[in-house]
Amino acid sequence: MSAKKKNRNPAETIVKEEGKVAANLIPIYIMGKRYEVPEGLTIMKAIEYAGYKFIRGCGCRGGTCGACGTVYRKPGDYKLQVALACQKTVEPDMYMAQIPFFPANRARYEFAELTSAPEEVFKLYPELFRCVACNACTKICPQGIEVMDAISALKQGNIAESARLSFDCIQCGLCTSRCFGESVQYHMFQLARRIYGAKIIPEAEHLAEMVKVINKGKYEEILEKLKSMGEEELRELYEEREIEPVTTGEDWRPKDKSCL
Amino acid sequence: MSLAYYPGCTLKTKAKNLEEPAIASMEVLGAKLEEIPRWNCCGAVYSLADDDLIHQVAPVRNLIRAKEQGGNELVTLCSFCLNTLKRANLLMKENAEKRNTLNSFMDEEIDYSGEVKVVHLLEVLRDEIGWESLAQKVKLPLRELKVAPYYGCTLLRPREVAIDSVENPTILHEFLKALGAAPVDFPESARCCGSYQIVSNPDDISGYAWDILSSALSRGAEALVLTCPLCDFNLGRGQEELRKQHSEFKGMPLFYFTQLLALALGIDPQVCHFELNYPGPESLLREKNLLSRGGSF
Q: Does B55 sit within 8 Å of A132, measured CB to CB?
């Protein structure tokens, strides 16, 4: 086997050998090196296709874990672009690198001792006030969050607004990688959402009521009965269970109301 | 009348007693302060370094937000915000090279070239409402109250952004007169409170605060009126230290101008958040029968 033949793109080999329709190969640049990869692959699959193996920088492959933040540029455009490697499909001539991790110190706090006062955030993250409103954080966010606005909200003491604006944050850390003021936005937002969830929104009264009902032992008997059943009996119960129709109103109730 | 309004961060936390009485008062005067959306910090201090353009981004972005709203005027309450925004505005209007650099840096925003006029609420009262009309709306004249008008720096300096005569300002005097109060003139009226030097040179600030407060006291003032949360901090919280240094000093209440405005317009004193004032003005206000309408704090 000649050296040339040996170095042939594996995609071509596979496609020809199996006699399937060939995928178009497009050039991409991973950390500056050119590769030809089938179009239609996600960035993550393209990187694997090119021969890299992920031991970090790859998590859920579903766009929610924030492990695969990737920056790229295209020729002729000064704009730095961003994507999650598991979500974005490759485009010709992308110059890319993954930024799976970026150093960011998370403040230590005893959550139970925190109040909902704006000063709690100021004390834990005083670098918040180094923001110069350059907006680089917003521009880089793969989730399209108005990161700078969420930071402004914190400075204005509006923890609830910061929690609302940052709700889609997957903590990929790209904002932090770009911050002129060296802030750790995603940790700040996590604190905001925690304070908002636990100390600002009113507690659900019905939840407290339900906990009381459970503690009084409403479900003890039902659970005991289940625990004493044999496999066959359990299976039968499961298979014959009443299922909520796919299309139904909010007022739907099962016939057997003993568990409600 | 609807006015595009820039609050500033401090007014949402430590200085609610500056903002809330302003909003309530302007409603009584037939104007709505409409907070501009998505505003950020004004920049806090105007950067004097000639090539330090990054610190102009924050104020200019706010001016862009105001322009987006279609208004040609942006009202501020905090004199520090006024100063920072107004000076950045001037730069965008007059310096083409820096304007281009800033506009091209903020490529996600519309271009800006100083179209919005930045004004202080005192100017709105003087120029758009008028002292006479204001005086007619007063329900509870502050007749017995002797107040020293304190301008500090940022309403008046530098000259190109001053809202009044730099040498002989009268806007706060006129304001107090319209509310029925007696302005007490004093030479330290436009002297610097020490500003952010409180962080690095707190001892010097004590000296400034003493000069300003003792001068006003010696001329018979019972309180000081001001427009700036930082002046309020230095001259208000600073009194703890002054009481230790000067045994004869009993303290002097400070008011934001908007608190006196709301009080005189007969608005519920709770809106004024006097509980955030330090030292507390309650006994002075009771003594002058200025809490009679609204009752308690």
A: yes
Check whether residue B147 and residue B252 sit in a common domain. Answer: yes
**Residue B93 near residue B116 (C-beta atoms within 8 A):** no
Q: Is the pTM of this model over 0.90?
A: no
Distance from CA of B60 to the nearest CA of A (A): 10
Co-location of A68 and A116 in the same domain: no
Asked whether the beta carbons of residue A155 and residue B9 sit closer than 8 angstroms, the reply is: yes
Chain A partners of B57 at a C-beta cutoff of 8 Å? Answer: 132-135
Q: What is the pLDDT of residues B120-129, one digit of tens each?
A: 999 999 999 9
CB distance from B55 to chain A under 8 Å? yes
Is A158 in CB contact (< 8 Å) with chain B?
Answer: yes
The domain spanning residue B36 has which CATH number? 1.20.1050.140
Q: Structurally, how many domains does chain B consist of?
A: 2
Whole-angstrom distance, CA of residue A176 vs CA of residue A115: 26
Which tokens go with B86?
Answer: 């107004």
Cβ-defined contact of A132 to B58 (cutoff 8 Å): yes
A130 and A185 assigned to the same domain? yes
Model confidence at A79, in pLDDT bands (50, 70, 90)?
very high
- Over residues B169-220, the pLDDT tens digits come to 999 999 999 999 999 999 999 999 999 999 999 988 999 999 999 999 999 9
pLDDT of residue A13: 46
Residues 58-77 of B with CB under 8 A from A: 58, 61
Residue B258 lies in a domain: yes
Measured between alpha carbons, how far is B75 from B123 in angstroms, rounded to an integer? Answer: 9
Does residue B106 belong to the interface with chain A, where contact is any CB pair within 8 Å?
yes
Indicate yes or no: CB of B12 within 8 angstroms of CB of A135.
no
Do the Cβ atoms of B41 and A155 come within 8 Å? yes
Q: Does A57 touch chain B (CB under 8 A)?
A: no
CATH number at residue A74: 3.10.20.30
B89's tokens? 């505005």
The residue range of the domain holding B80 is 2-121
Asked if A133 is an interface residue toward chain B (Cβ–Cβ < 8 A), one would say yes
Note the pLDDT of residue B240: 95
Q: Is the pLDDT of residue A12 over 60?
A: no
Give the gap in angstroms from C-alpha B148 to the nearest C-alpha of chain A: 30
Which of A119, A156, A180 has its CB closest to that of B12?
Answer: A156
Q: B291 and chain A: CB distance < 8 Å anywhere?
A: no
